[in-house]
Amino acid sequence: MPHETPESTTASIYGTHLPQMEAVLDRLVQCVESLRARMEAEMGINPVEHMLARIKSEDSMRDKLRRKGLPQTTEAALTQLYDAIGIRIVCAFLNDVYAIRDHLADDPEFDIVEERDYIRHAKPNGYRSYHLIVRSQQGYYAEVQLRTISMDTWAALEHHLQYKKPHKGNQRLIVQELKRCADELASTDVSMQTLRDAILGGDDS
Amino acid sequence: MSVRLLLAEDTRDLNRALTTVLEHEGYEVCPVFDGEEALDRIREQGFDGIILDIMMPRKDGLQVLRELRASGVFTPVLLLTAKAEVDDRVVGLDSGADDYLTKPFAMKELLARVRSMTRRREDYTVERLSFADVSLNADTFELSAANTVRLSVKEFELMQTFVKNADHLLSGEFLLGNVWHAEPDADIDTLTLYVSYLRGKLKWVGSNVTVSSVDGGYRLVTDPDSTDRVLA
To answer: Strand order of the sheet with strand B148-150?
Structure first.
């Protein structure tokens, strides 16, 4: 898994914790990989379309600490903010998101400290994703984002448009239309899940 | 807002008399005297109903009607026909007219038919339908409870049928006829799949409503599994 390496010349915001942090990241990836292997063997289903694992870059971490009015210390980076370690898992189908969530919850290495289901309760702008903050046994926090391909597509495209101010037309209409697109994609996700259930002949919902 | 009618009648006295009576009843009337003019006005502005005389110069009423329907204008049309012209009435209805009236007619009957023609339109556009915790927006096809999704056309029509007939058990045959009309490719498998889609979507918007299948029929119910949540 690629992740940004900190500048070696200055002291890292993460102090000497980077190796352990990378170990936690690897452990998270392993957890997902083990479920992937099991589901592929048992059902011929690969629940993971793709996965991004990263340690937040030095610059973004320092920026975020500054924005939040927190001190530029290793302690703040590792205990006041929870996304120094982050993994995004993009799934093919809706139910895969929940299968992975359950698998993570069952993993004794991690405790769930915060959980937000923005899939069942989409944000007002239409954003959908399942967010978890977990803590490893050693006390490292990690942010886990789970979503389907459609949700990932929407988030990526919305991000492209986010900072562009419209030349004409009103902002309200654009926000409303972005939400409509999100709702249409969400509808398709449910249809695709229904079709998979019909094809596999089981109802794993 | 008042109901807007286009009146196409080439006999000047009759045109004036009808306009006066309709306006007196509160309609906004646009009177025209031939078929070409009727088409021009309809293409310029929207109407809630159209009254077309068949015998008109430049373009007759049937020709106007065919051109309207061909160009996707589905505004209700009332045809005015002469008593002898049975074929015209048949051709008129087949060409997409909603109703006809034979000349000479009583003003009272014309008004009743205009009311019926414009009322139907209002009935068809019920904006918001709801059942228990779920609501359906007929303008946007949005299904909403705790969350929202957009339904496809057939999903919407099926859901709308369920909501409007919430008190009845609906047979598969009725649903296929009502939602899929006579589409040759639609069969019971289509219906079963669409019912599954709706169940999935109801669940994912966080509603406790689901489609239950009992005794070979379907109806909306509140999901017994979510009763606790409802009572809590």
So the answer is: B128-131, B134-137, B142-144, B148-150
